[in-house]
Amino acid sequence: MKLIYADNNATTPIAPEVAAVMQPFLTDQFFNPSSAYDQARRVSDALKEARKDMAALLGGINPGLITFTSCATESNNWAITGVARANPQRRHIITTAVEHPAVLEVCKDLVRQGYEVTFLPVDRSGQLDLKEYVRALRADTLLVTIMHANNETGVIFPIAELARLAHETDPAIVFHTDATQSLGKIPFDLKTEFGHVDLLSCSGHKLHAPKGVGALYIKRGVPIRPLLIGGHQENGRRAGTENVPHIVAFGRACRLAAEHMTGEDHIRALRDRLETALEEKIPYLEINGRGAPRLPNTLNLACHYIEGESILYELNAQGICASSGSACTSGSLEASHVLKAMNIPFTAMHGSVRFSLSRYNTPDEIERLIEIFPEIVARLRRISPYWDITKNAPRPTAPKG
Amino acid sequence: MAWEYSEKTRRIFTAAVHGEPGTHMGEIDNPDGFGEHGSIVCGDALRFTFRVLQHPTDPVQDVITDARYLTFGCTSAIAASEALCSLIVQGRYTPIGALKITNQDIVKFLDGLPSQKIHCSVMGAEALEAAVFNWAQKRGVDLEKIGVHLKDKGEDEGRIVCKCFTLTEPYIRRKIKELNLRTIADITGAIKAGGACGSCHHAPGGLQDLLDETWGKNGSQPTPEPVSAAASATTEVSPFQLYRKIEKTIAENIRPALQADGGDIEIVDVKDTKVYCRLSGACAGCPGANATLKLMVERTLKEAVDEKLKVIAL
């Protein structure tokens, strides 16, 4: 049975070109890029090239504004706590209710330290209300940290406008965005459209580089304290010998993403085909984030009256990898904070499934998904106490969402 | 989270979902016993029915010949439901005999369950009790009289401790004793109480208090209190007079001009000297909208109200 990998918002397969380009740095090109001899120069040149490739993907910015980190979680932790420590007078932060935990939990931790944090709500389609955002901006606002695209639903926030509004209100407010899910999936330009963005986090393994490498873009002049000190690396912004093989891999992955971005419509076509077909075949199906701008690769569904973990299990039994925001898959007993913030009907809350595609998915795979997924939903509904099989509809006694 | 289910749990789940012969998914028409437990809000629910072979003279000696379930829930909830029915039918139990099946028997049948999934096995035992109670009513069996003490729903009514999963004090107290739950984590793992918002953990009369009252102060490990993030959006209120002046100017000098072109303007907020506006109607889609705001609105406001005013377009 051939595997269908449709969980690319969790992690992506490493591109063969990426694996090849990092290979020498795992073997004979082991030198410390900070060393003085010729051999080390070749390694530090490779780092430079990687930085240039990423700078190009971000809109042709100065490569020196990019700092490589160990992952997007580090970048997010650094961005938030580093800005807070650089400007201790300001004590107010604005974020959203649907951020990744690597932002949300850091903000909650600052609440414990006496900061005030505004968690902006979202509407039924996962979008922010710009009016609420504007009203939340204050004279003591230190930082706005809002993700570019949501990992669960793919809903895209209007970062360019949010950043502009923050700076027009007060140029001293630092605007950070977590672009982990959008980098390489949709184009954006930090020089023009995103010119008001001060800090941007991203990660390698979401765009076909290996796990263990991330980056933080820091616009010139933005006050931020380092997280790791004790070395001159990365212009003193992040101490620690560079993770050369992974940085080289990340750079190449950025170059490939830039090349493929024009072809990303192929991914959108596959996603749209999947969405339309599943909606036709499955009654009582919610498309989460419908009506909002969304990443082209993400489809978040919620099936009324069944539970997401059983769906994943059945999918996996047929060689399909996807994920769910159901409580049972989360390791806690709570359903996804994102779907809850969106007020998804409670009869569908536990039946969510996320398919996230990449350039390696094929039309044949999508057709197989379209064949298999409705069967799984029908099977689980047959077993659901809320479902009437004869009518293929909820029982009259079932709670209404 | 990766699955940590036993091979047997996985096998039983797959067989059940595919309705393989010998499995018990379904519902018995006009059952002799019927019970439900859980709710869709909590993430799992079970509807349990059984059929008995009636004893000609003594209902207590009825034997369960078939048991069926419909389950809304995860892999382990479905597997636990199947396990319960298999145990009952294989054991040729009387309804009262079936009450001896505990959630531990179900866990054993499944070769174990991850600790966070124990509540799935408890749900089966609860539904079974409800069904036996229903059978007793139908067959005119006085359970109390023959010494079977059923904890029917009525007894568990009382003050709600865990509001997220609607669990009452008597129910939680009973489960703490029955299942030997020693910590808040134990309680959450077994019956979900305290698993969502966490506000009942250390509240007066909350889970920790119930544990302390059952086992004594040192009988259970205190768990650290989770700090909940306070979401607060205290918006700065601008001086009332300034706002009134801005509003008046927009109403008299700006809005009519915009409305003449089929558009409108809304003041979203005024902070300090900054006026946040949003154009609507025909103006909203106009490429010149931003320029319109900046030039016309800002100039008008500067002249009529305050030179320091700045307009920000949403």
Descriptive overview:
The complex is a heterodimer of chains A (401) and B (314). Chain A is of the alpha/beta class and 401 residues long. Chain A folds into 2 domains: 4-10 and 264-394, Aspartate Aminotransferase, domain 1 (Alpha-Beta Complex); 16-260, Aspartate Aminotransferase, domain 2, CATH 3.40.640.10. Chain A has helices at residues 16-26, 38-57, 72-86, 101-112, 130-136, 159-169, 244-261, 265-281, 308-317, 337-341, 346-349, 363-382, and strands at 4-5, 66-69, 92-96, 116-120, 141-145, 174-178, 199-203, 214-218, 285-288, 298-303, 320-321, 352-356, 387-388, 393-394. In chain A, strand 5 (141-145), helix 6 (159-169) and strand 6 form a beta-alpha-beta unit. With 314 residues, chain B is of the alpha+beta class. Chain B is 40% helix and 17% strand. Chain B is built from 10 helices and 8 strands. In chain B, the strands form 3 sheets. Chain B has a 3-stranded antiparallel beta sheet. In chain B, strands 6-7-8 form a 3-stranded mixed beta sheet, covered by helices on one side. In chain B, strands 4-5 form a two-stranded antiparallel ribbon. In chain B, strand 4 (160-162) and strand 5 form a beta hairpin. In chain B, helix 2 crosses helix 5 (118-139) and helix 5 crosses helix 7. At the A-B interface, helix 4, strand 4, helix 5, helix 6 and helix 9 of A face helix 1, strand 2, strand 3, helix 2 and strand 6 of B.
Describe the structure concisely:
The complex is a heterodimer of chains A (401) and B (314). With 401 residues, chain A is of the alpha/beta class.
Identify the most extensive interface between protein chains: A-B, 52 and 53 residues
Give the averaged pLDDT of chain A, no decimals: 95
List SSEs of chain B in N-to-C order.
Answer: HEEEHHHHEEHHHHEEHE
Query: What is the top-level CATH class of the largest domain in chain A?
Result: Alpha Beta
Output the number of helix runs of chain A: 12
The termini of chain A sit apart by: 37 Å
**Quaternary organisation of the protein chains:** heterodimer
Report the count of strand segments of chain B.
Answer: 8
Strand-and-helix sequence of chain A, N→C?
EHHEHEHEHEHEEEHHEEHEHHEHEE
Biggest sheet record of chain A:
7 strands, mixed
Tally of separate helices of chain B: 10
Low-confidence stretches of chain A: none
Total tally of structural domains of chain A: 2
Shape of chain B: elongated
Please identify the structural class of chain B as seen in this structure.
alpha+beta
